[in-house]
Specification:
Layout: E1 2-3, E2 6-7, E3 16-17, E4 20-21, H1 32-50, H2 54-57, H3 60-70, E5 78-80, E6 86-88, E7 96-102, H4 107-123, E8 127-133, H5 138-145, E9 153-156, H6 159-164, E10 173-177, E11 183-188, H7 194-206
Parallel strand pairs: 7-8, 8-9
Antiparallel strand pairs: 1-2, 3-4, 5-6, 7-10, 10-11
Length: 207
């Protein structure tokens, strides 16, 4: 759920990860107290945005600092992409790596994914770009993937990978790692200057 371009809640918050019920901020959703809590949180966020205080709702500043501290380097993970090929962190050694977590129900993710295809064409094999889908049915993921650049590596994220990257709780979330695997940048959401910010850092890493 978005208010303007700010993500305020995702399926996991209501207790679901890839259609499997679990624990979230408002879970179990059938509980009246949790529904009241969500309504109160949503109203508060809308009030802040209408007052021009998006900076207080965006998780970027505090969350980015925490992510840079907790995820100092590209985490170990192993997935199969939609073509069935193994996608292993060890395969990416020595390359600049951009990892985008996205979901089919996330409108800003679509434009970001299209832009990532442009970046891949620009940098070629020098930059590995991974589009890791979360909380989305695989048939819908494949449908979106068919409209993307074939050079993007698209995979369905499992719970272990999401946890390795700091328990992904919002999308889009983007991680950029340098050639040594060190975390260079983390961006939560789709701020208006996303392309400019990431392009600037990516350009310095890929040179």
């Amino acid at each position: 759920m978005f208010v303007d371009d700010v993500l305020v809640a995702c399926p996991r918050d209501f207790g679901y990860f890839r259609e499997v019920e679990g624990i979230g901020r408002y879970a179990p959703w059938q509980n009246a107290d949790n529904q009241a809590k969500f309504k109160a949180d949503l109203s508060h966020m809308i009030d802040l945005i209408l007052a021009g205080r998006k900076d207080l709702v965006r998780p970027e500043n505090a969350a980015t600092s925490a992510a840079l501290k907790e995820i100092a380097a590209l985490p170990k993970f192993k997935l199969n992409d939609l073509s069935g090929r193994t996608l292993d962190a060890e395969q990416l050694s020595g390359r600049v790596v951009l990892v985008e977590f996205w979901a089919t129900w996330c409108p800003p993710c679509r434009s970001t994914l299209a832009w990532l295809g442009e970046l891949k064409r620009k940098y070629g094999d020098g930059v590995a770009i991974l589009a890791l889908a979360v909380e989305s049915p695989e048939d819908q993921i494949r449908s979106v993937a068919n409209s993307l650049s074939p050079d993007l590596r698209v995979a369905v994220t499992d719970a272990a990978t999401a946890e390795a990257f700091g328990n992904i709780t919002s999308v889009p979330t983007m991680f950029l790692f340098d050639r040594s695997g060190k975390t260079a940048q983390v961006v939560y959401g789709a701020p208006p200057d996303l392309h400019q910010r990431v392009s600037q850092v990516l350009g310095s890493l890929a040179d």
